[in-house]
Automatic annotation (TrEMBL):
The lineage of its organism: Bacteria, Pseudomonadati, Bacteroidota, Cytophagia, Cytophagales. Gene3D superfamilies: Ribonuclease H-like superfamily/Ribonuclease H (3.30.420.10). This is Predicted 3'-5' exonuclease PolB-like domain-containing protein. Signal peptide: none annotated. It comes from Roseivirga pacifica. GO terms for molecular function: nucleic acid binding. SUPFAM superfamilies: Ribonuclease H-like.
């Protein structure tokens, strides 16, 4: 892959939590919608909607984004590839989404390609839906209405790994393991984010985890392109 093509990719990962710390804090009308949603879960016969509320963060209608980490490739004077990673984190989702939208408009061309693992099923639509909910204009890379599939500038490492096998799911952590890439799960994993956010009040810990996920994502992408992995010295957390 040519340098210019690599520099046109923005790797990203998001961390999401339930919209409220406790089920009881939800407006009554929203509780009714969650009760119906939770009734379809496998655990619904053993647990109440309140007990299942910790899972609300994976649904854009009931959750919110607390961190978006992004990474992009640049080449130094010796033509060595470098990966730069930064993150937007905030308890205020509007500010976070506005900062991300500003990054896209100010620092990247409209032709930038967004890349995430399972991004087409989760990250990209989740960001777009939360922007709509919060009244934020969608950046061009997230404007999909009326476009043909090949016109949408999204890359997905899960899709690349499937090689056309639509029934197969592989987590980023498993994919990294079999490709010889160090895991990002040394501290926490996605299932713990809601508790770390609301119980520990530790957004910084979530942010660092999210940034590590982006580093793994970019490495997986390189491997899938038949390119060498980066040394740790070439990965810069901004």
């Amino acid at each position: 892959m040519k340098h210019a093509q690599l520099e046109q990719i923005l790797f990203l990962d998001i961390e999401t939590v339930a919209g409220f710390e406790e089920y009881s804090e939800m407006p009554e009308a929203l509780q009714k919608h969650w009760n119906r949603k939770a009734s379809f879960f496998k655990e619904a016969e053993q647990k109440t909607p309140e007990e299942l509320y910790g899972r609300a963060g994976i649904y854009s209608e009931f959750g919110k984004i607390v961190t978006i980490a992004v990474g992009y490739f640049r080449f130094d004077g010796d033509e060595n590839i470098q990966l730069r990673i930064k993150a937007f984190s905030s308890d205020n989702e509007v500010e976070l989404l506005q900062s991300f939208a500003k990054l896209l408009s100010d620092s990247f061309p409209p032709s930038v390609k967004l890349c995430a693992h399972n991004g087409k099923e989760f990250d990209f639509p989740y960001i777009a839906r939360r922007m709509v909910i919060q009244g934020i204009e969608l950046p061009k890379p997230l404007q999909m209405s009326g476009k043909k599939p090949w016109e949408i500038p999204h890359l997905d490492t899960l899709e690349l790994w499937k090689f056309g096998d639509y029934k197969h799911f592989t987590s980023l952590d498993l994919l990294a393991h079999i490709l010889g890439i160090p895991s990002s799960k040394s501290d926490i994993d996605g299932s713990q984010v809601n508790e770390v956010y609301y119980k520990e009040k530790n957004l910084d810990r979530i942010t660092e985890y999210c940034k590590r996920d982006v580093a793994v994502l970019a490495q997986v992408f390189l491997k899938l392109q038949g390119m060498p992995l980066l040394n740790n010295s070439a990965i810069h957390m901004l």
